[in-house]
Structure formats: structure tokens, C-alpha cells
Amino acid sequence: PLVTTGELVTRAATARSAVAAFNIITLEHVEAVITGAESLGAPVVLQVSENAVKFRYGRLLPLARAAVVAAERAAVPVALHLDHVRSDDLLRQAADAGFGSVMYDAAHLPYAENLAATRAAADWAHSQGLWIEAELGEVGGKQGRPALDAHAPGARTDPAEARAFVADSGVDALAVAIGSAHAMTERTATLDHDLLKRLTTTLDVPLVLHGSSGVRDDELTAAVAGGIAKVNVGTALNIAMTGAIREFLAAHPEAVDSRTYLSVGRDAMAEAARRIIQLLGR
Ligand code: G3H
Ligand code: ZN
């Protein structure tokens, strides 16, 4: 059934586990993530980023409608989340498209502007009954910017600043920069667990880890034990899908029917999703 991100994150935070949130791009991503979650009887979040909407010719609804129907028919609770939104126009499409939550991303702006834009987004989201996540400190590797940004101390989330940001913006959850970066294809990120500890003791909202594809299993479970309640994963699915398809097409140069390789890619994503969901616990 279709549920909200807010209830899944609250449940995870209470259980000191984390809910996995996977970025979906195609219908195969939707089906694979739900299959992986169903194999474990675990809830999951499907998220559509602004970049994915751009890829879909700027249209949110076709993929969103498919995801809503898939979620409604799933054997496990599935939430829909709009991820890394910068456009106010896209933000305002969230509720109508069936999404229960949004991540508003103004982390690239100076503090005061990030706060003002996030507060306006949070006011609007709450007026629509939406749960809203924002980011402070900047998780690097977005839109082609070097992932190394995330490792610069200045990009990390400052606990005192984060406390004021959450109080003044009214957001329901905070994405924190503690050493992960987006779009890493090797799992070499080193998380600052000491900073995470200071953030969890200073803040009273659930914390979100972005760029989780670049984080090793032991680092990820330590982050969940340290208070991360939502784990965002995108690249790991694409690595699985593309690798499986590449291998299949190399072995079957005569293949023509797209179902032959899409099903191989979908199976690989389902297995990758299952592995990560299992790691995060319940
Ligand atoms: O918001 C999405 C995530 O942060 C995904 O990051 O593609 O590096 O796993 P990733
Ligand atoms: Zn992200």
C-alpha cells in the first residue's frame, strides 16, 4: 500500500533502524525496488529527483502515476518522495502527483538564503500536509560538481547552525553532510561518526544520509546505529542495472527484444535493493 515517508522515517527512528529511499528513473527501477522490499517484507521509499524529472522530458506525472499504482498494489508499505527539488514549480506538483513528502534543496545557497527559501518551502509543504526534508552543509557530487567538495571541512554540517536552521525553518528532517558524496562508483567515503554523534544529540529531527552508494556496509550500519533514519541510494541501482545489461549484451550480441536485457537489469537492481534494505535493519 501507499504510505507516507513521514510515517516510515518516524517508525525507523523509533526502532533505531533506517528506511531505504531509492531513486527511481524508469519503470524497471520502480518494479525492482518494490520486488526487493517485498522479498524482505520491508517498507521502502521510492524517490524521484528533479534531475530524473528533467530526464523524463520535464514531466513528473507519467513516472509518478506508475509509481503510485505500483505502491498501491505492493505487498509492503511504499512511500513516494520528491528528491532534491530546487524548482518551486516542481515542488508545487508534489501533492497532486501523489507524493507525501519532498526534499527541498537550497544547500548551495549561502546560509541566510538557504534558510529563507527552505522556510517558505516548509510553510507551503505543511499547508499541503507534506513532510519536508532539507539540507544544510553540502553533500557534494551534485550536477557534475566534484564529489571531493563533500570532504572539505567547510562543506560539513555544523551542529549549532543545524539546530538553528531546523528551528527557524520548521523542516521535519535534515540531510547532513558528514563525509558522503553523490554519484560515487566506489565505496570509499569515510564518514565522520563523531560529527554524526554531535548532530544527533543536538537535533531532535530525523537525519538523512545522501550519497549512500559510496558508503561501505560497515560504515552504513555504524551511521544507522549513530542516528541516521533515512538512507538515500541512487547510483548503486544504476551500477547494478548497467553492469548486468552490459554483460548480457556482450554475451548475446544477437539480442533485439528489449525485455531480454531489461529483465536482467531489473533483477540486478532488485537484488541490490534487497541487499541494502536488509543491511539497514527494521
Ligand atoms: O538523493 C539521492 C541520494 O543522495 C543518492 O546518492 O546516487 O550517490 O547513492 P547516490
Ligand atoms: Zn541526494
The overall pLDDT average reads 95
The major sheet is characterized as: 8 strands, parallel, barrel
How many strand units? 9
Rg over CA atoms, rounded to whole Å, is 18 Å
CATH superfamily: Aldolase class I
Please indicate the percent range of residues in DSSP E strands (runs of 2 or more).
Answer: 15-25%
**Distinct helical segment count:** 11
Shape: globular
Order of strands, widest sheet: 2-3-4-5-6-7-8-9
Alpha carbon gap, first and last residue: 18 Å
CATH topology: TIM Barrel
Number of domains: 1
CATH class: Alpha Beta
Assign the CATH architecture. Alpha-Beta Barrel
**Global structural class:** alpha/beta
Which spans of ≥5 residues are poorly predicted at pLDDT below 50?
Answer: none
Bound molecules: glyceraldehyde-3-phosphate, zinc ion
Helix % is 40-55%
Q: Element order, helices and strands?
A: EHEHEHHEHEHEHEHEHEHH
Question: Overview of this structure, please?
Answer:
The structure is a single chain. This protein has one domain: TIM Barrel (Alpha-Beta Barrel). The chain is globular. α7 packs parallel to α8 (193-202) and α10 (235-251) packs antiparallel against α11 (258-280). Helices cover 48% and strands 16% of the residues. The model has no long low-confidence stretch (mean pLDDT 95). It has 11 helices and 9 strands. The protein has helices at 5-15, 27-40, 50-55, 61-73, 88-91, 111-127, 159-169, 193-202, 217-225, 235-251, 258-280, and strands at residues 2-3, 19-23, 44-49, 78-85, 101-104, 131-136, 173-176, 207-209, 228-233. It has an 8-stranded parallel β-barrel, surrounded by 8 helices. The chain has 282 residues and is an alpha/beta fold. The chain binds glyceraldehyde-3-phosphate and zinc ion. The site of glyceraldehyde-3-phosphate has 16 residues, from β4, β9 and α10.
